[in-house]
Amino acid sequence: MRVTKAVVPVAGLGTRFLPATKAIAKEMLPVVDKPAIQYVVEEATAAGLDDLLFVTGRNKSALEDHFDRTVELEESLRSKGDTERLALVEASVDLARIHYIRQGAPLGLGHAVLMGRDHVGDEPFAVLLGDDLIDPRDPVLAQMLDLQQRHGGSVICLMEVPADQISLYGCAAVQPQGDHVIVTDLIEKPDLALAPSNLAVIGRYVLDPAVFNVLENMPPGRGGEIQLTDALVQLAAMSAVDGGGVRGVVFNGRRYDTGDRLSYLQAVIQLALERDDLGPPLHAWLVDHLEEMKGDR
Ligand code: UTP
Q: Residues 205, 47, 148, CA angle at the centre, nearest 5°?
């Protein structure tokens, strides 16, 4: 069965970005000049996922507005003949069929995914997190969907990270298997000494619907939250006939982390430097600015 649905959780509190995220979801923060979530939606549709369920929290109105028409703004741009900006405004509207459900309380990523149960039904589906932006030149989601089609079960995305960063992520124990790995265990944000590898779980998943039963019956884990990582551990131990089995794609393409302030700033600068319109002047300014700073020391 071809995967067409994706669950996109956007109900986290975004505490690392306060006060910016007091009234808007962190997924709405601009990365250069587009909200992070638009990159994610574009990535999903490029991989053939055209039915998206946003799991929202109290900050959903800006998200809904962004993917909806803005008649007044469009009229104003049209009357001025500003077709370039009009195209930018319209670009987010017809990207995908977007549905919304409220999480109620932010009880964890696993709980947010469980909110998708009725919409998804009994078919495999993707989960995309707005924290991780994947460069469209390195389409890992298509690779993950292909792996899921070939073997069934669930597929996660792994990335090698430096040892001092592994405790910021879910970490996977794996066995190599041709072009991918079999996931045998996962630990959420382990201390370095307990980390089974340097493979971090990043925010792309293709999940078997068996995950819903697992999540429903799972007690809160680390931080008192229902953790998706804990559900994946159970799926990894289950047999294939029950929807179990977790495979991993080891991604070594371009990824931009927008989850905390420093990595967000780095992502914005990196992506802006790649742009034809902003890259050259930003680069020149950065070089001058760094030179000036050296002089001030
Ligand atoms: P994070 O842990 O990165 O998001 O969750 P957060 O809790 O909003 O961030 P901080 O640590 O407080 O700054 C990963 C993803 O899961 C979503 C978040 O919106 C983010 O996309 N999420 C998390 C939910 O939708 N609901 C939750 O209960 C928790």
A: 45
